[in-house]
Amino acid sequence: MDIWNFYDITHRHQVICNPISPERLDILVELLRLPSGAAVLDIASGKGEFLVRLAEAYGVSGFGIDASPHFVRDARERLKARVPQSALIFQEMDGAAFVPDAPRSFALASCIGASWVFGGHGATLDALSRFVAPGGWIIVGEPFWLQEPAEEYLKASDTARTSFATHAENAAAGEARGLELAYSLVSSKDDWDRYEGLQWYSVSEYARTHPKDPDLPEIVERIHKERSLYLRWGRETLGWAIYAFRQRISGLGTSAA
């Protein structure tokens, strides 16, 4: 089964391909207060909703990078429909392979919900830091443990305890790299329920309209397993947040504890 086709099916009814509400995303966009025409970069940009909103609010330029041809197609269509004059470019490629024309040239670099591109949360912060000018924004989205995960959950989901950290540890990872945590947006259970539930709904609809798809049994089996994991353990165990870090400006230190 082609993994990008799987995600295209399961996220067919998602605008934002993460467990965050449009209202919370609007809060983030407003808080960023980017200068008009600022250069931005979003790695694993999905369907492009975050960048399109930045283009609507600030007229940004820059790049959205994603490995999914389906999501890149959707992002380009969304941009054309809403901000046709935008200088944003959506490009299909491995985000880890992106090389900018000049280092530290972006006012914002983000990777929301895809730290696997760079090999984890800390490595993502390191990578994005190399793209951003002093004082610029580094935006990441990352799961975190709400409570100690049950061994049964880890085994059933093929997840290691070290795959994720706590909310405080996610924040501290940025501070340890000299970044300032300016804001965080934590997803609610409603956000999670909508994100997960729309995937169940999408597969249910797809199964009825594409009964002869040879990949359908695998798609249905996988989504049934993910639904079971979420309902039995995940909803009470795993959280998710967007962390808005800023590059510290030279001469400004950390606050005293």
Describe this structure in words.
By secondary structure, the protein is of the alpha/beta class. It has a single domain (3-247), classed as Vaccinia Virus protein VP39 (Rossmann fold), CATH 3.40.50.150. It is 43% helix and 22% strand. The protein has 9 helices and 7 strands; from the N terminus they run ααβαβαββαβααβααβ. It has a 7-stranded mixed β-sheet, with helices on both faces. The radius of gyration is 19 Å and the shape is globular. The model has no long low-confidence stretch (mean pLDDT 95).
Number of domains in the coordinates?
1
Helix content: 40-55%
Within CATH, the superfamily carries the name: Vaccinia Virus protein VP39
How would you sum up the major sheet? 7 strands, mixed
User: Terminal Cα separation, in Å?
Assistant: 51 Å
SSE topology string: HHEHEHEEHEHHEHHE
The CATH architecture category equals: 3-Layer(aba) Sandwich
Shape: globular
What is the tally of helical segments? Answer: 9
The count of β-strands is: 7
Spatial strand sequence of the major β-sheet = 3-2-1-4-5-7-6
Low-confidence stretches: none
> Based on helices, strands and strand pairing, what is the structural class?
alpha/beta
Radius of gyration: 19 Å
